[in-house]
Amino acid sequence: MSYTTLKMIHVSAVALSICGFTARGLGVLQGASWVRHRLARTVPHAVDTVLLLSALGMLWIIRLPPWAAPWLRAKIIGLVVYIALGVVALHPSRVGQTPRPRAVRLAAWVAAIGVFGYIVSVALTKSPRGALLWW
Ligand code: HEM
Prior knowledge:
71% helix, globular
């Protein structure tokens, strides 16, 4: 598979990932039942796996280790923070635990979308400062 094809797959997975995350966040905050459906819980994992594998595929083609460039390190750290905030925002608390307050979920959801925007800006600028370069 070519670099261009992998990049197209990566960017498509990026778009699907943020659309799905935004929709699930709205669903959870509104108490919608569809967010508990098996598809709503499994498809995001498949999309995020494609996102990561396409990124690794591109790096493999150009023989660049993921830690080799500061902007790639920033993306990896950003991805970990995005996933952690996503768990707080979307995942139910464990049985026996007090449910997370709605305000905490809302704050984590908004912060995760902000972090996602930062990662996109890092991708476009190829700098860990991302959108800060535009100011
Ligand atoms: C939520 C996580 C991520 C988002 C939102 C994201 C977003 C993007 C976007 C929008 C592009 C296209 C940039 C352009 O058109 O110039 C891109 C390209 C790319 N991303 Fe990601 N990405 C993510 C995760 C990762 C990770 C974890 C890696 C690798 C460690 C990675 C590696 C790359 C590479 C190598 C390119 C191609 C750069 C180029 O040729 O211009 N991405 N990413």
